[in-house]
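Encode chain A's predicted structure.
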Amino acid sequence: MVTQNRPTKELVELHFHLGQSVEPHILWSIAHEQGIKLPSKDYWEFYDLVTLNKDTVEWADYHKLFHLTELIQSSPVAMERTVYEVVSGAYRANNITLLEPSFNPMFRNRGGERDLDQILLAALRGMERALAEFPMVRAGLMMLLDRRLPKDVNAIIVRKAIKYRSRGVVGIDIAGPLAEGFKYEDYTDLYEEARANGLKTTVHTGEDGTAEEMAHVLKVLPLDRLNHGFRAYTDKALMAEVVKKNLCMCLCPTSNLSVKFIRDGDHLREVIQTLWNNGVKFCLNTDNPSMLRTNLSKEIELMRTYNILTEDQIDQTTAWAREASFVPTEHGRNIYL
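Encoded structure for chain A:
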């Protein structure tokens, strides 16, 4: 008999992408259930592909793999099972009792072939099923806009997020490679519209870009939180601005190490301790857990392995994550059930 020990501490995860958070065997099952032609008929070749199991990982590898996992998840049936497996699995494996999976619904509708509302409703059903089975868990869905999409298409995502706010969509984010012509200031109005309708806002910044770009983002977008943002450690004025705005950074150590945005353990220690010493709030996250063969417990263990944070400091990052969550609660209960 296989025994499973329950982790002693409740954890919180605020930044991870749905497409890269599903275990390979579940992705394999979902793909076959829908009759999707995969790059290989051999499961272990597929496993190596979706976990980036190779010596050198490049930024482009991330986005190439995103396309495959998004294709597999591009149906209501697939989305319902995906969200259910991710939310319930996070609790069973890591005792994560508060989490916010993120995804772009436009990359789940096969170029308009699938109805966007059906995709979103299926995702919400999957979340509701997980929350019903595990009532100690609280969760909300984050809608991703993408820098490669035209603004009018991203605007549809924002309005769908607003439409389903009462069902469990909690906020919006901008991700994806920087595309020609994209300007953050063009999205000020959409972010203000989202906030005026009860949604929270964050953005991917300070990861593959520069501190200067991040400073610009903070100037033009109304924000409640930051995804990544670690490059602020190079600029004391920028860190001071983050502190002034009371923004919590959702750091993803393994992800940034894997593509060498952060060079090694020593560099990771420098980054995190600089943020801490300058009063910047941050929390630990996985970004793409299944793809990177990580989980939140492993991210926390990195802090111990590289002697970056004390146990009290680790507990403080969890407290900051709980404080920065976008999931609305009523007397400690998820209001969506």
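The CA atoms of residues 27 and 72 lie 7 Å apart.
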